[in-house]
Here is the input.
Amino acid sequence: MGKSKNYGMNTKALHANKKFEPLTGDIMPPLHLSTTYKNDIPGESEYFYGRVNNPTRELFERTLASLEGIENYEEIHALAMASGMSAVSLIAELVKPGENVVITKDVYGGTTNYFSKIVTERGVEVNFCDFSDTEKLKSLLNDKTKLAWIESPSNPSINLYDLSKTAEIVHENGTFLVADSTFSTPFITRPLEHGVDIIMHSTTKYIGGHSDTLGGAVVTKNPELHETLMFYQRQGGAIMSPFDSYLVQRGLYTLGPRIKLHSENAHKLAEHLESSELIKEVRYPGLEKFKNHEIALKQMDYFGGMLSFYLNENVDQEKFWKSLDLYKLAVSLGGVETLIELPYLMTHDNAQETAASAPVDLIRVSVGLENIEDLIDDMDSALNAAKK
Ligand SMILES: Cc1ncc(COP(=O)(O)O)c(C=O)c1O
Here is the structure.
């Protein structure tokens, strides 16, 4: 990346890679679709076969690693996957029969399902606990605990966990700490700086940023873990396609400014909701009264675009969401448009009746880039329309 490695995040997103200088002098890197490459010596070409490596995927893998703070990102790069869930399953391959994992209680419903219904079938024990209860966490760690899995902020309750403290606890046990950083992205938190061993992203969300690409990524700076996970990535084959790689690389160029505006909008909306007599509780890391605000100040550069809240008893939930205009009722998050969802019935429906269940009446918002005055007006009129 030019002469200096001390560039700021926005510069890194744009200039992490100078390797591809197309013959035409394109300023933006082209999309490489070829699935195979010419060998000058049999088996010795730099690019060999599309599942193994592809220049478009590689550009994204290097840029993301650079943003996560990996200096030698040309060798130790991210691993781009076909979806966030294939990133989850790639990491889960590290856990062998007879070993166990500990997972924070309130993670994405798909992660809960994957571990409790699929990983357990190969003889792996899976335990869920509230990681802020450090004594409980310690009691679940033993010499067979391969991974501890954290999501901060968590989906959908927006709980924050102290990454450095958790890393210290699990490292004492020889366990790797994994952080699902989908809600944060490296523009908010760079988990490797806090001792996390493996980061995973659903790039479907903020990194892609426009709700038009599915993908996932795994990042580690541990050379052995990188080597093993890259082998699993290439042999398992659930890699990110060239076109999705092109879209998420494009997403990285504007990720910084988008995160800034998502965060500003979400903060203003959270403050507005907090002051409303029709709202029981707002969960947003930037609110001074929020119980995890101190952790947010310690490990987040922005407070993010995600918030959740509970309506007061005097508001009819169904009437409320049906009265919204700009907020679309839909799963997923991190796109330019504002989305609202009911986690218990939608993203976390498979975790109902389990320790990882979402609260029944919680409402989650992915705050988009619309003008905040319009979002606040629309919120107020829906709340008023739904008053009992
Ligand atoms: C926090 C989190 N992790 C992982 C995933 C799974 O990602 P994908 O849907 O791209 O497979 C999601 C999807 O909503 C998510 O919100």
